[in-house]
Write a structure and sequence with these properties.
The chain is α/β, with parallel strands linked by helices. It contains six helices and ten strands, in the order βββαββαβαααβαβββ. It has a single domain, classed as Rossmann fold (3-Layer(aba) Sandwich), CATH 3.40.50.300. The strands form two sheets. A six-stranded mixed β-sheet has the order 6-7-8-3-9-10, with helices on both faces. Strands 2-1-4-5 form a four-stranded antiparallel β-sheet, with helices on one face. It is globular. It starts with a strand and ends with a strand. The protein binds adenosine-5'-triphosphate (ATP) and magnesium ion. Magnesium ion (MG) binds next to helix 1.
C-alpha cells in the first residue's frame, strides 16, 4: 500500500457545454501524505473546486483513479462512497451548504447524530466546536440569519464534527476579513499539529501559501508542484 492517504492518478474531468465539452482536468495526479498540509492555488475557473470534490468522493472523474487509504473510491458503490465521506472526510464547501431549516447548533449536531452519538453528547460536542470557532453566541440562528463569514465558521465546525482524518477546504477564507482569515488559519494549523489531521485547501488567495508545507498550482488542467 502506498504511504499516501490520498493518491489520485490521471484524473480527467469535463463538463458538457451545449454540443461540446469543457475539459477542466486533463489527466492530472496528486498525492497527499498522511498528516500533510497542502494548498492548491489557481485562478478562478481553473478547476480547484472540481478537483477537491473529486478527492472528497463528491464527484466522479470521467477517468482516472482516486485511492483513499488504498481504496479506489472511483470504483466502489455509492453507499461505500457515502460511508467513506462520513468516516474519513470533513468537507468545507466554497458556497455554504448548511441545512436552511436547522439552526447553527443543529447543523453541527446532525453529522454527530448520524454517526450514532446521543443527542446530549452531540449537543455538548457541537457547542464545543462552535465555541472554538467563536460563533457559539449565534448557535440558535438559522443560516439565513448569519453573515457569510459566520456561516463559513459554522460549516467548519460541522466539517470537524466527526474528527475526520482528512479535511478538505474549498476557499475557506473567501467570506472572511483579514483578521478572521488569519485566525481561521491558526485554528487549522493547531488542529493539524494536535491531531495530525491531513489538510488540503484550495484557494485563489496566494497569501495562504505561507501556512502550508506542500504548495501546488493548477495550470492548464494539471496540478504542478511549486515546492
Ligand atoms: N456543474 C458544472 N457544469 C458545467 N460547468 C461547470 C460545472 N462546474 C464547474 N464548471 C466549469 O468548470 C470550470 C472549473 O470550475 P471550478 O468551480 O472547478 O473552478 P474553481 O477553480 O474552483 O473557480 P473559483 O476560484 O471561481 O471557485 C469553470 O469554467 C466552471 O464554469
Ligand atoms: Mg471554486
Amino acid at each position: 500500500m502506498s504511504d499516501f492517504i490520498i493518491d489520485a492518478r490521471d484524473i480527467v474531468k469535463s463538463y458538457r457545454e451545449g454540443e461540446s465539452r469543457l475539459v477542466v482536468l486533463r489527466g492530472t495526479d496528486i498525492r497527499i501524505k498522511k498528516g500533510a498540509r497542502i494548498i492548491i492555488t489557481g485562478p478562478s475557473g481553473s478547476g480547484k473546486s472540481t478537483l477537491l470534490h473529486i478527492l472528497g468522493a463528491l464527484l466522479k472523474p470521467d477517468s482516472g483513479d482516486v485511492f483513499i487509504k488504498g481504496e479506489n473510491i472511483v470504483k466502489v458503490s455509492e453507499d461505500r462512497r457515502a460511508e467513506i465521506r462520513k468516516d474519513l472526510i470533513g468537507f468545507m464547501f466554497q458556497h455554504h451548504y448548511l441545512f436552511s431549516e436547522f439552526t447553527a447548533l443543529e447543523n453541527v449536531m446532525i453529522p454527530l447524530i448520524l454517526s450514532g452519538r446521543s443527542e446530549k453528547d452531540a449537543k455538548r460536542r457541537a457547542i464545543h466546536l462552535l465555541e472554538l470557532m467563536e460563533i457559539a453566541e449565534r448557535k440558535d440562528h438559522r443560516p439565513n440569519e448569519l453573515s457569510g463569514g459566520e456561516a463559513q465558521r459554522v460549516q467548519l465546525a460541522r466539517a470537524l464534527a466527526n474528527e475526520p482524518e482528512i479535511l478538505l477546504l474549498d476557499e475557506p477564507t473567501g467570506n472572511l476579513d483579514h483578521k478572521r482569515a488569519m485566525s481561521l488559519m491558526e485554528i487549522l494549523m493547531k488542529l493539524n499539529e494536535d491531531t495530525g489531521t491531513t489538510l488540503c485547501l484550495v484557494s485563489h488567495n496566494r497569501e495562504l501559501e505561507q501556512f502550508f508545507d506542500y504548495r501546488y498550482a493548477i495550470k492548464d488542467g494539471k496540478v504542478e508542484s511549486e515546492n
